Amino acid sequence: MKKKIRIAVIGGSGVYTPGLMLSLVKNMEKLPETDIVLCGRTENKLEKIFYVSELIASESEGRLKVYRTARVEEAIEGSDVIINQVRVGGFGARSGDESFAGDMGIVEEETIGVVGLSNALRTIPVVLHYAELAERLAPDAWFLNFTNPASMTIRAIKQKTSLKVFGVCDLPEVLAHTIADALGESRENLYFRYAGINHMGWITDVIKAGKSIFDRVLEISGKLGTLGVDPEIIKFTGAVPVPFLKYYYHPDKQIEKAGQKGMTRGDELKMLEAELINAYSDENINGKIGDIKSLLFQKRDPVWYEYCVVPVLVSLFGSVHSTHIVMLENNGAVEELADDDIVEITAY
Protein backbone atom coordinates (compact mmCIF):
# COMPACT_ATOMS: atom_id res chain seq x y z
CA MET A 1 0.00 0.00 0.00
CA LYS A 2 1.33 3.45 -0.94
CA LYS A 3 2.19 5.73 1.96
CA LYS A 4 0.35 8.68 0.47
CA ILE A 5 -2.01 9.38 -2.43
CA ARG A 6 -3.30 12.49 -4.15
CA ILE A 7 -6.90 12.75 -5.37
CA ALA A 8 -8.13 15.47 -7.73
CA VAL A 9 -11.87 16.13 -7.87
CA ILE A 10 -12.98 17.94 -11.02
CA GLY A 11 -16.32 19.45 -10.17
CA GLY A 12 -15.18 19.57 -6.56
CA SER A 13 -17.44 22.54 -5.80
CA GLY A 14 -20.50 20.31 -6.22
CA VAL A 15 -22.81 20.53 -3.22
CA TYR A 16 -22.64 16.77 -2.55
CA THR A 17 -18.83 16.69 -2.32
CA PRO A 18 -19.04 16.74 1.52
CA GLY A 19 -20.55 13.26 1.15
CA LEU A 20 -17.26 12.13 -0.40
CA MET A 21 -15.34 13.67 2.48
CA LEU A 22 -17.52 11.96 5.09
CA SER A 23 -17.04 8.59 3.41
CA LEU A 24 -13.27 9.08 3.09
CA VAL A 25 -12.92 9.95 6.78
CA LYS A 26 -15.01 6.91 7.69
CA ASN A 27 -12.64 4.66 5.70
CA MET A 28 -9.26 6.31 6.35
CA GLU A 29 -7.99 3.33 8.34
CA LYS A 30 -8.14 1.34 5.07
CA LEU A 31 -6.44 4.04 2.97
CA PRO A 32 -3.02 5.71 2.84
CA GLU A 33 -2.64 9.31 3.93
CA THR A 34 -4.53 11.36 1.37
CA ASP A 35 -4.31 14.82 -0.13
CA ILE A 36 -7.53 15.76 -1.92
CA VAL A 37 -7.72 18.77 -4.23
CA LEU A 38 -11.17 20.19 -4.95
CA CYS A 39 -11.34 21.96 -8.29
CA GLY A 40 -14.28 24.22 -9.10
CA ARG A 41 -14.93 27.29 -11.23
CA THR A 42 -17.53 29.05 -9.06
CA GLU A 43 -15.58 30.77 -6.28
CA ASN A 44 -18.46 31.20 -3.84
CA LYS A 45 -19.48 27.54 -4.08
CA LEU A 46 -15.90 26.30 -3.95
CA GLU A 47 -15.11 28.30 -0.80
CA LYS A 48 -18.19 26.97 1.01
CA ILE A 49 -17.52 23.37 -0.02
CA PHE A 50 -13.86 23.76 0.98
CA TYR A 51 -14.87 25.12 4.39
CA VAL A 52 -17.20 22.20 5.04
CA SER A 53 -14.68 19.68 3.66
CA GLU A 54 -11.90 20.99 5.90
CA LEU A 55 -14.20 20.68 8.88
CA ILE A 56 -14.93 17.06 8.01
CA ALA A 57 -11.25 16.28 7.34
CA SER A 58 -10.34 17.56 10.81
CA GLU A 59 -11.83 14.30 12.13
CA SER A 60 -9.15 12.25 10.31
CA GLU A 61 -6.28 12.97 12.75
CA GLY A 62 -4.30 14.64 9.97
CA ARG A 63 -4.49 11.70 7.55
CA LEU A 64 -6.79 13.53 5.12
CA LYS A 65 -5.84 17.03 3.96
CA VAL A 66 -7.98 19.22 1.71
CA TYR A 67 -6.92 21.84 -0.81
CA ARG A 68 -8.83 23.84 -3.41
CA THR A 69 -8.09 25.50 -6.72
CA ALA A 70 -9.91 26.97 -9.69
CA ARG A 71 -7.16 25.73 -12.05
CA VAL A 72 -7.76 22.27 -13.45
CA GLU A 73 -4.08 21.84 -14.33
CA GLU A 74 -3.05 22.50 -10.73
CA ALA A 75 -5.57 19.98 -9.43
CA ILE A 76 -4.62 17.23 -11.88
CA GLU A 77 -0.82 17.44 -11.90
CA GLY A 78 0.77 14.56 -10.01
CA SER A 79 -2.52 12.97 -8.98
CA ASP A 80 -2.92 9.24 -8.41
CA VAL A 81 -6.63 9.33 -9.16
CA ILE A 82 -8.82 11.93 -10.84
CA ILE A 83 -12.52 11.88 -9.99
CA ASN A 84 -14.53 13.58 -12.72
CA GLN A 85 -17.93 14.70 -11.48
CA VAL A 86 -18.26 17.92 -13.48
CA ARG A 87 -21.75 18.96 -14.60
CA VAL A 88 -21.35 21.05 -17.73
CA GLY A 89 -23.97 23.79 -17.80
CA GLY A 90 -25.16 22.99 -14.29
CA PHE A 91 -28.66 21.86 -13.39
CA GLY A 92 -30.06 24.72 -15.47
CA ALA A 93 -28.83 23.06 -18.68
CA ARG A 94 -30.30 19.75 -17.58
CA SER A 95 -33.63 21.40 -16.87
CA GLY A 96 -33.63 23.01 -20.32
CA ASP A 97 -33.06 19.64 -21.99
CA GLU A 98 -35.78 17.98 -19.92
CA SER A 99 -38.27 20.77 -20.57
CA PHE A 100 -37.74 20.39 -24.31
CA ALA A 101 -38.35 16.64 -24.09
CA GLY A 102 -41.45 17.21 -21.97
CA ASP A 103 -42.84 19.66 -24.50
CA MET A 104 -42.28 17.06 -27.22
CA GLY A 105 -44.08 14.37 -25.20
CA ILE A 106 -41.05 12.10 -24.84
CA VAL A 107 -39.05 10.77 -21.87
CA GLU A 108 -37.24 13.56 -20.04
CA GLU A 109 -34.24 11.88 -18.43
CA GLU A 110 -30.63 13.04 -18.70
CA THR A 111 -29.17 9.83 -20.13
CA ILE A 112 -32.03 8.83 -22.44
CA GLY A 113 -33.01 9.89 -25.94
CA VAL A 114 -32.83 13.55 -26.92
CA VAL A 115 -31.98 14.65 -23.37
CA GLY A 116 -29.06 12.22 -23.18
CA LEU A 117 -27.83 13.26 -26.63
CA SER A 118 -27.92 16.95 -25.75
CA ASN A 119 -26.10 16.22 -22.51
CA ALA A 120 -23.44 14.23 -24.38
CA LEU A 121 -22.86 16.97 -26.97
CA ARG A 122 -22.44 19.53 -24.20
CA THR A 123 -20.37 17.39 -21.84
CA ILE A 124 -18.01 15.17 -23.81
CA PRO A 125 -15.84 17.93 -25.37
CA VAL A 126 -15.24 19.46 -21.94
CA VAL A 127 -14.41 16.15 -20.27
CA LEU A 128 -12.11 15.21 -23.16
CA HIS A 129 -10.17 18.41 -22.49
CA TYR A 130 -9.72 17.37 -18.86
CA ALA A 131 -8.74 13.85 -19.92
CA GLU A 132 -6.11 15.19 -22.31
CA LEU A 133 -4.71 17.35 -19.51
CA ALA A 134 -4.60 14.26 -17.29
CA GLU A 135 -2.78 12.29 -19.97
CA ARG A 136 -0.10 14.99 -20.01
CA LEU A 137 0.09 15.93 -16.32
CA ALA A 138 -0.75 12.62 -14.58
CA PRO A 139 -0.34 9.87 -17.20
CA ASP A 140 -0.31 7.04 -14.66
CA ALA A 141 -3.40 8.21 -12.78
CA TRP A 142 -6.73 6.40 -12.68
CA PHE A 143 -9.48 8.52 -14.25
CA LEU A 144 -12.72 7.72 -12.44
CA ASN A 145 -15.67 9.13 -14.37
CA PHE A 146 -18.91 9.90 -12.59
CA THR A 147 -20.30 12.33 -15.15
CA ASN A 148 -23.34 11.46 -17.28
CA PRO A 149 -23.86 10.17 -19.87
CA ALA A 150 -21.24 7.92 -18.35
CA SER A 151 -20.78 5.17 -20.95
CA MET A 152 -20.52 7.61 -23.86
CA THR A 153 -18.11 9.81 -21.93
CA ILE A 154 -15.85 6.89 -20.99
CA ARG A 155 -15.81 5.57 -24.55
CA ALA A 156 -14.79 8.98 -25.88
CA ILE A 157 -11.93 9.12 -23.37
CA LYS A 158 -10.81 5.60 -24.34
CA GLN A 159 -10.84 6.54 -28.02
CA LYS A 160 -8.86 9.76 -27.57
CA THR A 161 -6.42 8.98 -24.74
CA SER A 162 -4.43 6.15 -23.19
CA LEU A 163 -5.71 6.85 -19.67
CA LYS A 164 -6.75 4.15 -17.24
CA VAL A 165 -10.39 5.23 -17.28
CA PHE A 166 -13.43 3.57 -15.75
CA GLY A 167 -16.72 4.67 -14.26
CA VAL A 168 -19.07 3.98 -11.38
CA CYS A 169 -22.79 4.51 -10.89
CA ASP A 170 -24.83 4.15 -7.73
CA LEU A 171 -27.88 2.47 -9.33
CA PRO A 172 -26.52 -1.13 -9.36
CA GLU A 173 -25.18 -0.84 -5.81
CA VAL A 174 -28.38 0.72 -4.48
CA LEU A 175 -30.27 -2.19 -6.06
CA ALA A 176 -27.84 -4.69 -4.51
CA HIS A 177 -28.27 -3.14 -1.06
CA THR A 178 -32.06 -3.08 -1.49
CA ILE A 179 -32.12 -6.78 -2.37
CA ALA A 180 -29.76 -7.68 0.49
CA ASP A 181 -31.97 -5.80 2.96
CA ALA A 182 -35.11 -7.50 1.61
CA LEU A 183 -33.44 -10.89 2.07
CA GLY A 184 -32.27 -10.03 5.57
CA GLU A 185 -28.67 -10.47 4.46
CA SER A 186 -25.55 -8.33 4.66
CA ARG A 187 -24.48 -6.83 1.32
CA GLU A 188 -20.86 -7.73 2.09
CA ASN A 189 -21.74 -11.45 2.29
CA LEU A 190 -23.33 -11.56 -1.16
CA TYR A 191 -21.80 -11.62 -4.63
CA PHE A 192 -23.97 -9.93 -7.27
CA ARG A 193 -23.49 -10.88 -10.91
CA TYR A 194 -24.46 -7.80 -12.88
CA ALA A 195 -24.27 -7.01 -16.61
CA GLY A 196 -25.45 -4.37 -19.04
CA ILE A 197 -24.57 -0.83 -19.98
CA ASN A 198 -24.92 2.23 -17.77
CA HIS A 199 -28.53 2.79 -16.71
CA MET A 200 -29.56 -0.34 -18.60
CA GLY A 201 -28.38 -3.33 -16.61
CA TRP A 202 -29.63 -6.38 -14.73
CA ILE A 203 -28.63 -8.51 -11.77
CA THR A 204 -28.54 -12.04 -13.15
CA ASP A 205 -27.38 -14.00 -10.11
CA VAL A 206 -26.69 -13.63 -6.40
CA ILE A 207 -24.22 -15.92 -4.68
CA LYS A 208 -23.95 -16.60 -0.96
CA ALA A 209 -21.18 -18.83 0.40
CA GLY A 210 -20.58 -20.26 -3.07
CA LYS A 211 -24.23 -21.11 -3.80
CA SER A 212 -26.80 -19.26 -5.87
CA ILE A 213 -29.76 -17.82 -3.98
CA PHE A 214 -31.23 -16.19 -7.07
CA ASP A 215 -34.51 -18.09 -6.81
CA ARG A 216 -35.11 -16.29 -3.51
CA VAL A 217 -34.25 -12.98 -5.16
CA LEU A 218 -36.73 -13.52 -8.00
CA GLU A 219 -39.42 -14.46 -5.48
CA ILE A 220 -39.13 -11.14 -3.66
CA SER A 221 -38.21 -8.88 -6.59
CA GLY A 222 -41.83 -8.20 -7.52
CA LYS A 223 -42.35 -6.82 -4.02
CA LEU A 224 -39.59 -4.22 -4.41
CA GLY A 225 -41.73 -1.20 -5.21
CA THR A 226 -38.66 0.96 -5.84
CA LEU A 227 -37.96 -0.86 -9.12
CA GLY A 228 -40.94 0.64 -10.95
CA VAL A 229 -40.95 -2.32 -13.35
CA ASP A 230 -43.86 -4.72 -13.90
CA PRO A 231 -43.12 -7.92 -11.91
CA GLU A 232 -44.22 -9.98 -14.93
CA ILE A 233 -41.31 -8.54 -16.92
CA ILE A 234 -38.88 -9.56 -14.19
CA LYS A 235 -40.41 -13.03 -14.15
CA PHE A 236 -40.19 -13.30 -17.95
CA THR A 237 -36.58 -12.10 -18.23
CA GLY A 238 -35.36 -13.98 -15.16
CA ALA A 239 -33.23 -10.98 -14.19
CA VAL A 240 -33.70 -8.01 -11.87
CA PRO A 241 -33.27 -4.62 -13.61
CA VAL A 242 -32.08 -1.34 -12.18
CA PRO A 243 -35.03 1.05 -11.73
CA PHE A 244 -33.96 3.03 -14.80
CA LEU A 245 -35.43 0.30 -17.00
CA LYS A 246 -38.87 1.72 -16.20
CA TYR A 247 -38.16 4.42 -18.79
CA TYR A 248 -37.78 1.70 -21.44
CA TYR A 249 -40.43 -0.78 -20.28
CA HIS A 250 -43.07 1.80 -19.30
CA PRO A 251 -42.27 5.08 -21.09
CA ASP A 252 -45.87 6.29 -21.31
CA LYS A 253 -46.33 5.96 -17.56
CA GLN A 254 -43.10 7.88 -16.88
CA ILE A 255 -44.03 10.64 -19.34
CA GLU A 256 -47.40 11.00 -17.62
CA LYS A 257 -45.77 11.17 -14.16
CA ALA A 258 -43.29 13.81 -15.31
CA GLY A 259 -46.11 15.92 -16.72
CA GLN A 260 -47.98 15.80 -13.43
CA LYS A 261 -45.02 17.04 -11.37
CA GLY A 262 -45.02 20.54 -12.82
CA MET A 263 -41.22 20.79 -12.77
CA THR A 264 -38.30 18.84 -14.20
CA ARG A 265 -35.83 16.81 -12.17
CA GLY A 266 -33.24 19.41 -13.12
CA ASP A 267 -35.44 22.10 -11.54
CA GLU A 268 -35.73 20.04 -8.34
CA LEU A 269 -31.97 19.51 -8.13
CA LYS A 270 -31.27 23.18 -8.84
CA MET A 271 -33.48 24.12 -5.88
CA LEU A 272 -31.75 21.57 -3.65
CA GLU A 273 -28.37 22.91 -4.72
CA ALA A 274 -29.34 26.46 -3.74
CA GLU A 275 -30.66 25.27 -0.37
CA LEU A 276 -27.45 23.40 0.43
CA ILE A 277 -25.18 26.25 -0.63
CA ASN A 278 -27.09 28.58 1.67
CA ALA A 279 -26.97 25.99 4.45
CA TYR A 280 -23.18 25.49 4.24
CA SER A 281 -22.31 28.42 6.48
CA ASP A 282 -20.96 28.98 9.99
CA GLU A 283 -24.31 29.91 11.47
CA ASN A 284 -25.96 26.69 10.23
CA ILE A 285 -23.13 24.24 10.82
CA ASN A 286 -21.64 25.63 14.05
CA GLY A 287 -18.44 23.69 13.42
CA LYS A 288 -20.17 20.37 14.01
CA ILE A 289 -19.87 17.32 11.75
CA GLY A 290 -23.29 16.13 12.89
CA ASP A 291 -24.86 19.33 11.56
CA ILE A 292 -23.26 18.73 8.15
CA LYS A 293 -24.60 15.17 8.02
CA SER A 294 -28.03 16.34 9.04
CA LEU A 295 -28.12 19.06 6.36
CA LEU A 296 -26.76 16.83 3.61
CA PHE A 297 -28.74 13.65 4.22
CA GLN A 298 -31.94 15.54 4.93
CA LYS A 299 -31.85 16.97 1.39
CA ARG A 300 -30.46 14.04 -0.63
CA ASP A 301 -28.32 11.18 0.60
CA PRO A 302 -25.24 10.99 -1.69
CA VAL A 303 -24.93 7.22 -1.36
CA TRP A 304 -22.80 7.02 -4.51
CA TYR A 305 -19.71 7.96 -2.52
CA GLU A 306 -20.32 5.46 0.29
CA TYR A 307 -21.45 2.60 -1.97
CA CYS A 308 -19.28 3.12 -5.05
CA VAL A 309 -16.51 5.71 -5.14
CA VAL A 310 -14.72 5.18 -1.83
CA PRO A 311 -14.91 1.34 -1.88
CA VAL A 312 -13.21 1.43 -5.30
CA LEU A 313 -10.52 3.77 -3.94
CA VAL A 314 -9.96 1.37 -1.05
CA SER A 315 -9.47 -1.51 -3.50
CA LEU A 316 -7.11 0.52 -5.71
CA PHE A 317 -4.96 2.07 -3.00
CA GLY A 318 -5.89 0.52 0.32
CA SER A 319 -5.77 -2.68 2.29
CA VAL A 320 -9.10 -4.26 1.30
CA HIS A 321 -9.73 -5.75 -2.15
CA SER A 322 -13.20 -6.75 -3.26
CA THR A 323 -15.54 -6.90 -6.24
CA HIS A 324 -17.26 -3.81 -7.62
CA ILE A 325 -19.80 -3.02 -10.31
CA VAL A 326 -17.95 -0.70 -12.69
CA MET A 327 -17.99 0.61 -16.26
CA LEU A 328 -15.07 -0.36 -18.46
CA GLU A 329 -14.24 -1.75 -21.90
CA ASN A 330 -16.10 -4.95 -22.68
CA ASN A 331 -13.23 -7.11 -23.96
CA GLY A 332 -15.49 -10.15 -24.34
CA ALA A 333 -17.30 -9.91 -21.00
CA VAL A 334 -20.69 -9.46 -22.72
CA GLU A 335 -20.71 -11.59 -25.87
CA GLU A 336 -23.44 -9.61 -27.60
CA LEU A 337 -21.44 -6.36 -27.53
CA ALA A 338 -18.23 -5.26 -29.24
CA ASP A 339 -14.96 -5.48 -27.36
CA ASP A 340 -14.55 -1.70 -27.27
CA ASP A 341 -18.08 -1.02 -26.06
CA ILE A 342 -18.33 0.32 -22.51
CA VAL A 343 -20.21 -2.17 -20.35
CA GLU A 344 -21.21 -2.15 -16.70
CA ILE A 345 -20.25 -5.41 -15.03
CA THR A 346 -19.06 -6.98 -11.80
CA ALA A 347 -15.26 -6.85 -11.72
CA TYR A 348 -12.47 -7.55 -9.25
Describe what is shown at a glance.
This protein is an alpha/beta fold.
Secondary structure elements and pairings:
Layout: E1 4-10, H1 17-26, E2 33-39, H2 43-57, E3 64-69, H3 72-76, E4 81-84, H4 90-104, H5 113-137, E5 142-145, H6 150-160, E6 164-167, H7 170-183, E7 190-197, E8 200-208, E9 211-212, H8 214-221, H9 231-237, E10 240-241, H10 246-249, H11 251-261, H12 265-279, H13 282-285, H14 289-299, H15 303-317, E11 324-329, E12 342-347
Parallel strand pairs: 1-2, 1-4, 2-3, 4-5, 5-6
Antiparallel strand pairs: 7-8, 7-12, 8-9, 8-10, 11-12
Describe this structure in words.
The chain is α/β, with parallel strands linked by helices and 348 residues long. It has two domains: 4-168 and 263-322, Rossmann fold; 172-254 and 327-347, Lactate dehydrogenase/glycoside hydrolase, family 4, C-terminal (L-2-Hydroxyisocaproate Dehydrogenase, Chain A, domain 2). Helix content is 49%, strand content 19%. The protein is built from 15 helices and twelve strands. The protein has helices spanning 17-26, 43-57, 72-76, 90-104, 113-137, 150-160, 170-183, 214-221, 231-237, 246-249, 251-261, 265-279, 282-285, 289-299, 303-317, and strands spanning 4-10, 33-39, 64-69, 81-84, 142-145, 164-167, 190-197, 200-208, 211-212, 240-241, 324-329, 342-347. Strands 3-2-1-4-5-6 form a six-stranded parallel β-sheet, with helices on both faces. Strands 7, 8, 9, 10, 11 and 12 form a six-stranded antiparallel β-sheet that branches. A hairpin with a 2-residue loop joins strand 7 (190-197) and strand 8. Helix 1 (17-26) packs across helix 15 and helix 5 runs parallel beside helix 6 (150-160). The radius of gyration is 20 Å and the shape is globular. The chain starts with a strand and ends with a strand. The model has no long low-confidence stretch (mean pLDDT 93).
